[in-house]
Write a structure and sequence with these properties.
Layout: E1 2-7, H1 11-22, E2 27-33, H2 36-44, E3 50-54, H3 62-69, E4 74-79, H4 85-89, E5 95-98, H5 103-113, H6 131-134, E6 138-142, E7 149-153, E8 159-163, E9 166-171, E10 174-179, H7 182-188, E11 194-198, E12 201-204, E13 208-212, E14 215-218, E15 221-224, H8 227-240
Helix pairs in contact: 2-3
Amino acid sequence: MLRCLVVDDEAYAGRLLASYIEKIPFLTLAGLTTNPIEALLWVQEGRADLVFLDIQMPELTGLQFLKLCGGRCKVILTTAYPEYALEGYEYDVVDYLLKPIAFDRFLRAAQKAQPVPAVPAPAAGSTAAPASATAVSHLFVKGESKNKFLRVNHADILYAEALGNYLTLVLPGQRLVTYQTLKELAEQLPQPPFLRVHKSFIISLDKISMVDGNTVYVGDKAIPVGETYREALYQVVRDRA
């Protein structure tokens, strides 16, 4: 869980980002302020892991804040001025969000701030390859423009639903529509933890909250289980019981 601090001299803009933070499971709102001096004290005291930082502020600009911050936490810049992007990246910021900020763009920036899990070192004398060398933990899906591709981590996928030659990938707080069939997606995903339970649905077994007869629940979403897929699902559930 990343403790987030929102710093913006426009109260409305700050409240919008705070509402976005509350929708994302791996973020928690630690503070919201219009005062960059107060925010700097929070960071220096180690009370925030990630700061959403406006650039144009009267007492202390975002770039001045970055200099004083000294890399004590991760920072995502938020501004209406694209000309500051290059200088911001010189301070190794996580991302640069241009206002007005849409939720899906905010989520992608937040995902970049997630810590990368450490890969355990192999035991002495072991000849096994590291997990990172043998397993792929993500896939890329086509975006809305010709040469745009979005990275999706396997661990974030709740379920996928077919829409003809398109499909919807459902993630926490986000839905991605991409030009791909469910069959093609199934060939890309590891099984387990993914399992096709209906001609129109693939689910993550790790995200199941309940199985009730011919219905499986992923969170609050009720998903029908097709007859041809039913026994395979029941077998997995029995094996994990």
